[in-house]
Design a protein that fits this description.
Layout: H1 2-8, E1 14-16, H2 25-33, E2 38-41, H3 47-60, E3 65-70, H4 76-86, E4 90-94, H5 102-107, E5 112-116, H6 120-129, E6 133-137, E7 143-144, H7 150-161, E8 167-170, H8 176-184, E9 189-192, H9 206-214, E10 220-222, E11 235-238, H10 241-258, H11 264-283, H12 308-327
Parallel strand pairs: 1-9, 2-3, 3-4, 4-5, 5-6, 6-8, 8-9
Antiparallel strand pairs: 7-11, 10-11
Helix pairs in contact: 2-3, 3-4, 8-12, 10-11
C-alpha cells in the first residue's frame, strides 16, 4: 500500500467511497483521523453548501481528505473553484469523462485528480489526459454502477496501467482478504463504501443502518432501465418499494421527453435529483420503505455498528494475515 498511501498522504490506502448524505463531515473526518482517506460526497450540493462542508470537515480533522464531484453537475467549475480556494489536495471526478477544461481547472492549484475507469480503453485515455490516479469500480458496488464485475475489471486494467498511475480497486470489498488480493494484483489501494455505512460516526439514520445489518448480498439489486431512449445509469440498492417508485419516475420523465417538454440533459438531471431526494429520505429521514437504500453486495459482511478506527484496523489485520500466509 506504500504507493497509494504516499499518493493520498494517509497512513493506509483505504478510501471511503463518496456516498451522498452519508459521506459528510463526520464520517469523512473519522476515516481520515483513523488513517484512511475520507471523501466528501458533493453530489447535488451548491457551491455554497460545499464551501461550508469543507470548512466543517477541516474543523474536525487536520489529516488529508478529498472531495468527490459529479461531472454532470451544472455548477461543476464553481465547485472546482471552491475546492481550489480551500486547498483541497485530491479531487475525484465521477459520473463520466471529465468535461473540457475541468482537468486543467483542478490541477491548476496543484490538486491531484482521481477518475473512475470503467474500461481499459477509458483508463488509457484518462491517463493520457493527465489524470493522476484511477478508481476501478465493479458492478458489485452500491449506488451508480457499470456493467462489469470488479474481478474482471481488475484483471483487465491493473496489468496494463498499474505501473503508470496508482489504481484503487472498488466494488464488493468487505474484508481484508479481498484487499490483499487486489494489492497482490498491483493495486495501490482500495475504496470501500458500504463497509463504512454502519460506522458509529456515520450520521445515517438508525433505520438505514438496521436495513444494512439485516441484508444479505442478494438483497442489493441493480435498478432496471425501462426506456432505451432514456439512458439511465443503473443504481444498486436494497430491495424495497423505492425501486418501484423509480420505475414510475422513469416513465414520467420518458413522457416529458416524448412531449418535448424537456431536453435529454434536463431529463437525466431529473433522474439524478430523484436519486438524491430518495437517498435523503432513507439516510436522513429513516424512510427505508420508500427511500433509496443504496448498498453494495458486500452489505452481508456488515454485521454490527462499530467505530471507523476498528473497521480499518480489522481490515488491515485481515489483509496482513492473508499476505503473510501467501508469503509463508
Amino acid at each position: 500500500m506504500a504507493r497509494g498511501s504516499a499518493f493520498l498522504g494517509s497512513e493506509v490506502a483505504i478510501l471511503c467511497g463518496a456516498m451522498s448524505w452519508v459521506s459528510e463531515r463526520n464520517l469523512v473526518a473519522a476515516v481520515s483521523n483513523a488513517g484512511g482517506f475520507g471523501l466528501i460526497a458533493c453530489g447535488a450540493m451548491t457551491p455554497e453548501l460545499l464551501d461550508r462542508e469543507i470548512a466543517a470537515t477541516k474543523a474536525l480533522t487536520d489529516k488529508p481528505f478529498g472531495v468527490n464531484l459529479i461531472t454532470m453537475h451544472p455548477a461543476l467549475f464553481d465547485l472546482i473553484e471552491v475546492c481550489n480556494r480551500h486547498g483541497v489536495g485530491h479531487v475525484v471526478l465521477a459520473g463520466g469523462l471529465p468535461p473540457t477544461g475541468s482537468i486543467d481547472a483542478i490541477k491548476a492549484n496543484g490538486a491531484k485528480l482521481i477518475c473512475f475507469a470503467p474500461a481499459l480503453s477509458l483508463a488509457k485515455k484518462l491517463i493520457r489526459s493527465g489524470v493522476d490516479a484511477l478508481v476501478v469500480e465493479g458492478m458489485e458496488a452500491g449506488g451508480h454502477i457499470g456493467p462489469v464485475s470488479t474481478s474482471v475489471l481488475a484483471q483487465e486494467i491493473l496489468p496494463e496501467v498499474a505501473d503508470k498511475v496508482p489504481v484503487f480497486v472498488a466494488g464488493g470489498i468487505g474484508r481484508g482478504e479481498g484487499i490483499a488480493a487486489y494489492l497482490d494484483m498491483g493495486a495501490a489501494g482500495v475504496q470501500l463504501g458500504t463497509r463504512f455505512v454502519c460506522a458509529t460516526e456515520s450520521i445515517a439514520h438508525a433505520n438505514f443502518k438496521k436495513a444494512f445489518l439485516r441484508a444479505s448480498a442478494r438483497d442489493a439489486v441493480a435498478s432496471v432501465q425501462i426506456d432505451p431512449r432514456l439512458p439511465v445509469i443503473p443504481v444498486r440498492a436494497l430491495k424495497n418499494a423505492g425501486g418501484d417508485l423509480f420505475t414510475a419516475k422513469q416513465r414520467e420523465v420518458a413522457q416529458l421527453l416524448d412531449s418535448g417538454q424537456v431536453e435529454m440533459a434536463e431529463a437525466q438531471l431529473q433522474i439524478e435529483h430523484y436519486w438524491a431526494g430518495a437517498l435523503r429520505r432513507a439516510v436522513i429521514d429513516g424512510d427505508v420503505e420508500h427511500g433509496s437504500l443504496m448498498a453494495g453486495q458486500s452489505v452481508g459482511m456488515v454485521t454490527k455498528e462499530e467505530p471507523v478506527a476498528e473497521i480499518i484496523a480489522l481490515l488491515m489485520t485481515e489483509a496482513a494475515a492473508a499476505l503473510e500466509q501467501r508469503a509463508a
